[in-house]
Each structure stands twice: as C-alpha cells, then as structure tokens.
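Sharing a chain and its predicted structure for anyone who wants a worked example. Both blocks are below, sequence first, tokens second.
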Amino acid sequence: MENTQAAAAQGATRDDQLLQLVSFEIGNEEFGVDILKVQEINRMLQVTRVPNAPEYIEGVINLRGKVIPVVDLRKKLGLEPRDHDKNTRVIVMELRGRVVGFVVDAVREVLRIPRSVTEPPPTLAAGERADFITAVGKLDDRLLTLLDLDAMMSN
C-alpha cells in the first residue's frame, strides 16, 4: 500500500495536485471518494427499514442521536446483493448539506495520488452510470474508479 503511494507521488510534478481519497471495495472492484467529504467510517450498524423506500436504500441508522439514511452501494451500482460480514463498513459522508451512510464491502486505505495518474472515464462507460464516475486512477497493479456520490445521489 505504501509503495503504491510512494510510486504515484514520485510521478507527480511539483504543481500536480494530489488527490486524497478513501478507497473501498465492492465485489472485486476498488473505488475511491474524496476524503474531505467523509465524516467517519463505522462497522455495520443496526439498520431500520423504511417502507416504500427505493430498493437501494437499506433504511436508516441512529448515529449519536441523528437519523441518517443508508444507501447500499452494491444495489445502487446494479450489483448482486451480498450478506454483510465482518469487513462490511458504512462510510458516513456529507453530500450537499445532508449526511448519508454508504454500505461497502470493505474499506481498504487512505490514498494520496497525483491527479496526473487519473484519466477521464472511458467512452464505453457513457450513459447514466458514467455520470458519477469522475475518473479512473491507474495505480501500479490496479485501477481505482473515482466516484462522485453527490452526482450519484442527485439522479
């Protein structure tokens, strides 16, 4: 993990902006979101279902007295549901003044990567799903899809 960050940082020029990201897994894929929007990361909490909510809404949680909606990112991305396990996490983020929790399979690490190692999403991803993919990061041995969850939730 550290080697990836060091190698990526070596490729950065002085004026190349560093992106600070929280990376997480959903299935076999790795995604990243802007760390500045992340408030906290929790183990899976007790979720209360909400009647007539969209399928991708798990329900709500009580986080220190505040009721927060929880989105299952697997379902939102159109992937098969999976039972929660010891690695399942809820990433709590502030999006447009609202606090929302996102269920992910596992949180990997905090990354600092230069913007120069990212590319716009490929044209084959054009369409509804591409709207919330901001870039694809090319790390040493893997690709990291950068998500704009603000855009995802505004659809």
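Comments welcome. Helices lie at 2-10, 73-76, 149-154.
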